[in-house]
Design goal:
Its main location: membrane. This is MFS transporter. It holds the Pfam family MFS_1. It is built from 17 helices and no strands. By secondary structure, it is mainly alpha-helical. The chain has a single domain, classed as MFS general substrate transporter like domains (Growth Hormone, Chain: A, Up-down Bundle), CATH 1.20.1250.20. The two termini are about 25 Å apart.
């Protein structure tokens, strides 16, 4: 029988509002995930180097802004929700500028770089605050369930968002698809504004920011559970970016796939992620927390090796990629829910913003590095080589967790 603290997470009104906001925001973001590169490649006729720079601009804020955002979140714990709402409104305004620029003839890659960089800066603030605020909304016993629901919804949004994005790009245009992205941020801001949390006393401002920075980094690299997760995530993000850039260039430039076909591949990944995130927590009690995390990482990170067959299947390329992305989605969908929940449970409340900022600084900071490297590899050796190098690197990233104490973790409560 469930205890009071383990009541269904759907009974929590504030969580439902957070969930609705997350769903709307993610739906719009997933539309942009396919609309933005196609906006660059099709509408603006971007080269491989320009597409690489766009990805760098899209993720460079995670390297530059994450630590200041984490310090801000911890300094003003009572303002975390307002930060998230402001970030949503700012992102909506910025994204609307892109279709307006396209329709007025002022769009160009420099404009796209600036807008994407600014919007991602606000995304960093939103995500750091979001990580820190969830444990205040749900109980520790609900964390895995809550993260599972959020991750499953994000995966469902990936299915609908990328599918809708591909349809809108093919039927209308990439600028029109981007308007749905902006609308998602507006709906998210409205939903978040209805969350009511008890007042939180702000922490004393005695420690200088640099000490907070050092504290967050020290905790992250020393903790026996957080450190291997950081290593895996950083390695994955670096090589996954190389793989994805090579995949998009190969699909558009060499294989001649339509936006709808590319959208179908991403939708397949979303289907897998949804299944993994929604049902993954059911395996934990039976097989153990750490063991489930390791096995699903092996599954999800190993699946991309299938792209090595991309130049041998001819007309079956779309089917091959859909299969790879489904398996990858299932594994990573389960693993991500467990990894995020583990980090939240293992990190004290007073350090969550700092630790999440340090974690994202390193792991997400690897993405612009991967984008830049992917552009170099794709330009010098070709898109297929970039795709292959990335897939092999992603598969190796699991070694971090396999060689740690995480697989021996039986329950999430043991990590606190």
């Amino acid at each position: 029988m469930k205890t009071v603290t383990e009541r269904p997470v759907w009974s929590n009104r504030n969580f439902r509002r957070l969930w609705r906001g997350s769903a709307a925001s993610t739906l719009g973001s997933e539309v942009a995930e396919i609309a933005l590169p196609l906006f660059a490649l099709v509408t603006l006729s971007a080269t491989a180097s320009e597409a690489s720079i766009l990805r760098v601009a899209q993720f460079l804020p995670f390297l530059l802004v994450t630590i200041p955002a984490g310090l801000l979140v911890d300094r003003f714990q009572g303002g975390r929700l307002r930060m998230m709402i402001g970030a949503d409104l700012g992102r909506a305004l910025l994204i609307v500028l892109l279709p307006l620029a396209a329709w007025t003839g002022t769009a160009g890659m420099p404009v796209l770089y600036v807008v994407v960089f600014a919007a991602t800066t606000l995304t960093v603030v939103y995500q750091v605050a979001d990580f820190a605020i969830l444990p205040r909304i749900v109980t520790e016993g609900q964390l895995v369930d809550a993260n599972g629901k959020l991750a499953a919804t994000q995966s469902a949004s990936e299915i609908g968002g990328r599918g809708a994005g591909a349809l809108l790009v093919q039927a209308l245009s990439a600028p029109v698809a981007l308007l749905l992205n902006a609308a998602g941020y507006l709906v998210s801001a409205l939903s978040l504004s209805r969350i009511r949390l008890p007042a939180t006393a702000e922490p004393p401002a005695g420690d200088p920011p640099v000490r907070d920075l050092v504290r967050g980094l020290r905790f992250t690299v020393r903790h026996r559970f957080v450190r291997p997760l950081l290593g895996e995530a950083t390695t994955f993000n670096l090589f996954n970016e190389i793989m994805m850039l090579g995949l998009l260039l190969h699909a558009v430039r060499e294989a001649g796939l339509t936006p709808l076909a590319i959208g179908a591949v991403f939708v397949a990944g979303g289907v897998g992620s949804f299944a993994g995130a929604w049902f993954g927590s059911r395996f934990t009690a039976r097989f153990g927390y750490g063991r489930v995390l390791l096995v699903t990482l092996i599954l999800g990170n190993g699946a991309p090796l299938g792209v090595l067959l991309a130049d041998r299947v001819g007309s079956g390329l779309v089917a091959l990629l859909c299969g790879v992305f489904v398996v990858m989605g299932v594994g990573i969908g389960i693993a991500n829910v467990h990894a995020v929940s583990l980090r939240q449970a293992a990190t004290p409340e007073a350090l969550r913003g700092q630790v999440n900022a340090a974690y994202r600084l390193v792991s997400w900071g690897a993405i612009p590095v991967g984008a830049a490297l992917g552009g170099v590899v794709a330009t010098q050796a070709g898109p297929f080589t970039a795709m292959a190098v990335g897939a092999i690197g992603v598969s190796v990233s699991t070694v971090w967790v396999a060689c740690s104490s995480v697989p021996r973790l039986r329950t999430i409560h043991d990590a606190a």
